[in-house]
Design goal:
Chain lengths: 324, 599, 303
């Protein structure tokens, strides 16, 4: 009997909950209308393509009718893992990524700390304007300018690009940057630094702005020099932001600037510049081997997902908020 | 606030508008109406701006084609795609179901192969040389211009033995050695060289080597200093030019050949002759006959040591001599530049030359846009008209009297000289009675800019005077002779027609192994054993599979090349050109008999 | 305010070092631009024979010209018989795509962000999960291409705008912003009889103007600078936006192996096209700088 009673009560509760849900839904009807375009967008352009992953199990080429393509199981994946280019791709991706991490990552922090030392506000504004500008310039322009700066002399007696000439003078012999495959690693790094280093300071400057002024005043009373203030107050204060940014960066270790590489890639440096992203592009878009390309992309997505999960855990482990 | 209201309203309206635009703007494959055709053609462009569809030259082509095809109007809709991403655009057209009626395929990617096998393109194997009976009851070719195509090249572009396209013909015997003629004569005169410049077409490997050493050691420029060397070899990626030529002269196959020892076709680096050539070049580099910096030498500077009188030989394409000669005229008018096609291994062995593939891409007819056999035949007829001399002249040089002026021979006004040394003028070839000078007006040139990409370059029956580009240097005429002479001894690539899936996938990596090892060996950085170890690495990383796959195709091929078929084809050509030095009496009799039947 | 204490010698040295260092650094950032601008006005022969020294050699006589300046490159860029039509058309395309695209971006991002800002909304968690998941895992290039193609958007401008209508990251930052708006305002408005849409348009949006300017700028710059979408989805070269035309001009080597006499575009021409592509951004940038300085910082810290 007690049972039936509780059953009746829970039924009533359910009924009430249902009504409550209905009321809520009705109350928020305009909110759902606002959500509609965005949700449609995510479903159409983000969720529906997930079905397309199925073609990675097919022998599917551009132009060949979909139904004529055979199901081939994991053949595309096996092909890729046994491919000699697999290790090359991994090597290039990691080299480009880690060079970025080692040489590029600290620079915005240093730059932000230095900018913070500029006490003349208008001059600081001017400097910021200058260092932010490259961020707003397109990759096409950046790579075009690069080619101008590093071009090899067209003929005897002609001059090469500014950087070619400079390096030739410094080293004392003719330098041919474009003809040197591995040089692409440095070119990509320097481009990234030039374009994004200034903009990267924004987040650190914001963190520095949040540092408590009293700490500095106390330090000054203690006779700390400006450099000591920087090392013992500012830096520790933004350490949290640095760690977060570092861990997030680790999470996207397989993501190398795709547009940048595609624009810089040529037959001379392809051996060194081919990464997972460009390989997907090469096999999917250029060669039209849709199945294989999608398989490679899927592999990269899964590994990336794992990296992000790991770095997120890492962020939480050191007491940071993390992304999720 | 007001502003934002407006912006949000505008954005909402726009979002809706754009969506509808997107749906209506969807462009799919259009079908061909053969009574009133609008033919969509996909072509690569090299210039910043290519000819518009409303250019008078395109109009002239349309009119001529309409007349020849017997239709009221015919329109060309050319879809230009930048050459740098042309391959990608071809793939995108196929992947997005935007098939043109004619598509130039520039590289045989796995997608092109798969689409050929899936019948996405019309099979033209039996149609190109189809015959029909004319009013007089004679059997004639249905498409006379298409019928002039070369069987071997058609075979080379085939997939599983089926021809899916109409290739764009290119010079086969393009290889050539550019030399300092005056150096040879000077050295011969002072006894440092056993032959003079009149002998260059009959040079043997021993004489070639003698010449290189004489250029290095015997002061060919007569300045009393040891400041010259023999041959310029450029860049890691360009080493292959001189190397492949030398190897073929020495008896190695062109890329792939039949190895009697193993009873299968193999790449050239498996052959002793090839390895010997490498070792020979290594010796030349070590002894200073070739520049020592071949690994870092920039191919863009290839001509410079030659032009500056530091070296006297370049092995590359024969037309390089044309440009070198033109530049030389300005820099050092006393220097004489000459060109020859090949070097024989020895005086008693028939020479061998390295040919090009003979084509540069091919046009396919997609079955998605050309649905019926009637439409297909219409398109073949159209391509036949496009391949005629009249249209070829329009495509390459524009409209007579407008894009270029006609004048009588001997009245050649040279308007401008391009840096490459070509005078922008054209002259009629066979008898020299017509000559023409191209307009230098940019607007005029723009009217036919890049249209030459549509030209097939077939040499069928003439329906107009045959125009060629005019060059001012004497060497230019020699270049044409070199082209012809080279063809008589060409060594084709036995595997040209075959597709190895492994190679298609790994060509970049596999080729990189061999080219890096070869550059290192030739420049003296590694030993022969190390080079062979790299060759083994090539073999293990996929080369073995490539050889296996190539041989499977080779063994299945009914028209496969053998040393005998190549020899017979070359000898037949030699007979036709009246060059009988290497023909046996039996062969002469056989060809003579065939001639009688043919007539 | 901090400098209660007098500057020590150490501090002065420190200041000098930092000022010099940063000044040099910021000059390095802009020198390439200045070089390109100067080079676009230089004679071709000068560009081929100078590198760094172009800056002063351009003032010196060249051949029989009084100096190295010339407008030839710009005349060629806007030559209507040459590439002029293509350049102008692509600029117009880029302006339209940027304006329309940014409107679509802001519309979709703000509406969705506002919708998700109500924590009691049923289904919010599901939608948030979907957004977060798609941020880290996607179908990839080809599956997305196939979807765009089957929607009939291939070779239409919609393909440049709709597939990137929302940046999930930006949308979440906007949502954070909306969530921090004082709840009292909304309540007051709803008592006044405003619907949620009314509150969104009349209260939420006006309060977030600086932030909208920031994201408008981000999206706008993204559209103006993007070339890859156009490369993927546009077929007809007359529809190309400016960046793709720029890429093709710069990439044009003229090296048709069968036709060695073809000449590539001159370097000055390339420079002039680069300048034309960069100037609009550089012109808009100072006006918006003060907005994003505030907007980005608030958003970035929370994001």
């Amino acid at each position: 009997m007690a049972k039936t009673q509780t059953a009746a009560v829970s039924a009533q509760e359910k009924q009430a909950a249902k009504e409550k849900t209905w009321i809520k839904l009705k109350r928020d009807k305009w909110m759902y209308l606002l959500l509609l375009p965005g949700v449609l967008y995510f479903i159409i352009f983000k969720i529906v393509p997930l079905w397309g992953i199925l073609i990675s199990f097919k022998d599917y080429f551009a132009g060949v009718p979909f139904l004529k393509a055979n199901w081939i199981g994991f053949d595309n994946f096996i092909d890729f893992f046994t491919d000699i280019s697999f290790w090359q791709l991994l090597r290039n991706t990691l080299i480009i990524s880690f060079m970025n991490l080692i040489f590029f990552f600290p620079l915005p922090i240093i730059l932000a700390l230095l900018l913070n030392e500029i006490r003349v506000q208008w001059y600081k504004k001017v400097l910021q304007t200058f260092v932010y500008v490259p961020h707003f310039v397109s990759m096409v322009v950046v790579t075009s300018i690069t080619f101008m700066l590093i071009k090899t002399p067209a003929m005897e007696g002609a001059a090469g690009g500014m950087i070619t000439e400079l390096l030739s003078k410094l080293t004392g012999h003719d330098v041919n940057i474009l003809g040197n495959g591995p040089a692409i690693y440095w070119i990509l790094l320097i481009q990234a630094i030039w374009k994004e280093c200034g903009w990267g300071t924004v987040i650190f400057l914001a963190a520095i702005a949040g540092v408590d002024m009293e700490q500095y005043e106390a330090a000054i009373v203690d006779g700390a020099s400006r450099f000591q203030q920087l090392i013992y107050i500012t830096l520790p204060a933004i350490l949290g932001t640095i760690v977060t940014m570092f861990i997030l960066r680790m999470g996207s270790v397989l993501n190398t600037g795709f547009e940048q590489i595609i624009l810089m890639q040529n037959d001379i440096n392809r051996e060194y510049s081919e990464t997972f992203d460009t390989y997907v592009y090469q096999y999917g878009r250029v060669e039209g081997n849709y199945g294989y390309s999608t398989a490679v992309g899927l592999f990269k997505s899964i590994v990336s997902l794992l990296c992000i999960q790991l770095s997120n855990r890492g962020a939480k482990a050191v007491g940071q908020a993390g992304l999720f | 606030m007001k502003l934002f209201k407006r912006i949000t309203t505008a954005a909402l309206a726009l979002a809706l508008g754009v969506t509808t635009l997107g749906i209506s703007g969807c462009s799919e494959t259009t079908e061909l109406d053969i009574n009133n055709p609008v033919i969509t053609i996909m072509l690569p462009t090299f210039a910043v701006k290519s000819a518009d569809t409303d250019s008078p030259v395109v109009k002239a082509i349309e009119e001529f084609c309409a007349k020849e095809m017997g239709v009221d109007s015919l329109k060309l809709n050319i879809k230009w795609a930048a050459n740098s991403n042309y391959g990608e655009k071809v793939t995108a057209a196929m992947g997005s179901n935007n098939w043109p009626h004619l598509m130039l395929v520039t590289s045989r990617t796995s997608t092109i192969i798969q689409n050929s096998r899936a019948d996405s393109f019309w099979d033209l194997t039996d149609l190109i040389k189809e015959t029909t009976t004319n009013d007089k009851g004679e059997t004639v070719y249905k498409y006379p211009n298409l019928a002039s195509t070369d069987d071997m090249i058609n075979h080379n572009i085939s997939v599983d033995g089926k021809v899916y396209g109409l290739y764009r013909a290119r010079e086969v015997g393009r290889a050539g050695v550019t030399v300092r003629k005056d150096w040879i004569d000077k050295l011969h005169a002072k006894g440092a060289l056993s032959f003079g410049s009149d002998h260059i077409n009959d040079m043997t490997m021993a004489e070639f080597e003698e010449m290189l050493y004489a250029f290095k050691n015997n002061d060919p420029d007569g300045n009393g200093q040891n400041d010259t060397y023999g041959m310029i070899v450029a860049g890691a990626d360009y080493l292959s030019g001189p190397l492949e030529n030398l190897a073929v002269w020495n008896g190695s196959p062109n890329a792939w050949g039949y190895n009697e020892k193993s009873g299968q076709i193999e790449p050239s680096y498996m052959f002793d002759e090839y390895v010997d050539t490498l070792t020979l070049m290594r010796k030349w580099v070590a002894e200073g006959v070739i520049n020592s910096n071949i690994a870092t030498f920039n191919s863009g500077d290839w001509n410079n040591p030659f032009l500056q009188g530091q070296a006297g030989v370049i092995i590359d394409v024969a037309d390089r001599a044309r440009r070198v000669a033109a530049n030389m005229q300005e820099l050092n008018p006393e220097a004489e530049v000459d060109v020859f096609g090949f070097v024989a291994k020895s005086a008693d062995v028939e020479p061998r030359t390295l040919p090009t593939t003979g084509y540069s891409g091919y046009f396919v007819l997609p079955t998605a846009s050309i649905k019926t056999e009637e439409e297909r035949d219409f398109m073949l007829k159209f391509m036949d008209v496009v391949s005629s001399t009249y249209v070829a002249n329009l495509l390459n040089y524009g409209i007579r009297g407008e894009s270029y002026e006609e004048s009588k021979d001997g009245d050649k006004k040279i308007v401008t000289v391009s840096p490459a040394g070509t005078h922008y003028a054209v002259i009629d070839n066979p008898d020299g009675t017509h000559s023409a000078i191209k307009s230098t007006d940019a607007a005029r040139i723009a009217e036919y800019q890049d249209l030459n990409q549509f030209g097939t370059g077939y040499d069928g029956p003439r329906n107009d005077v045959y125009l060629t580009t005019y060059y001012s240097t004497d060497v230019a005429k020699t270049v044409d002779k070199v082209y012809k002479y080279n063809k008589l001894f060409k060594v084709p690539n036995f595997a040209e027609a075959y597709i190895s899936p492994t190679y298609s996938r790994h060509s970049t990596q596999l080729d990189a192994i061999m080219s890096a090892a070869t550059t290192k060996y030739v420049s003296g950085a590694i030993t022969l054993d190390a080079w062979k170890a790299e060759r083994d690495r090539w073999f293990n990383q996929g080369g073995e599979k490539v050889i296996k796959e190539m041989n499977e195709s080779y063994n299945l091929d009914e028209d496969k090349l053998t040393d005998e078929t190549v020899k017979e084809a070359n000898h037949k050509l030699q007979y036709e050109q009246g060059f009988t030095k290497w023909l046996t009496a039996d062969e002469m009799a056989k060809f003579a008999a065939a001639d009688v039947i043919g007539d | 305010m901090i400098s209660i204490r007098r500057k020590t010698l150490n501090d002065i040295v420190w200041d000098v070092v930092i000022y010099v260092l940063l000044t040099v650094l910021s000059l390095i950032m802009v020198i390439p631009f200045i070089y390109v601008i100067v080079a676009s006005f230089a004679r071709e022969s000068l560009i081929q024979t100078t590198s760094m020294d172009l800056f002063w050699k351009i003032f010196a006589p060249v051949g029989n010209h009084p100096n190295g300046f010339t407008l030839a490159a710009y005349k060629e860029v806007f030559d209507m018989d040459g590439i002029g039509i293509q350049v102008l058309r692509s600029l117009a395309v880029s302006v339209c795509v940027t304006v329309f695209g940014t409107c679509v971006n802001l519309f979709c991002s703000t509406t969705m962000a506002y919708g998700l800002s109500r924590s009691s909304l049923i289904g919010k968690t599901v939608i948030m999960r979907m957004v977060l998941f798609t941020m880290v895992f996607g179908g990839g290039m080809i599956p997305t291409f196939l979807v765009v193609k089957s929607l009939g958007m291939y070779d239409s401008y919609a393909a440049l705008i709709l597939p990137g209508a929302i940046s999930a990251y930006n949308m979440l930052i906007i949502r954070n912003f909306f969530m921090e708006l004082p709840a009292g305002l909304e309540e007051a408005a709803s008592i006044d009889g405003c619907t949620d849409i009314g509150i969104f348009v009349k209260i939420a949006l006006p309060l977030s103007l600086p932030m909208l300017a920031t994201f408008g700028l981000m999206y706008g710059v993204g559209h103006w600078n993007s070339y890859f979408d156009a490369l993927l989805y546009l077929d007809d070269s007359s529809k190309y936006p400016f960046q793709l035309v720029l890429r093709n001009v710069v990439n044009q080597t003229g090296a048709d192996i069968d036709n060695l006499d073809e000449l590539p575009p001159s370097d000055t021409l390339k420079m002039a096209v680069i300048v034309i592509g960069t100037v609009p951004i550089l012109c808009v940038y100072p006006f918006l700088q003060k907005h994003f300085a505030a907007g980005v910082m608030t958003g970035a810290i929370k994001g």
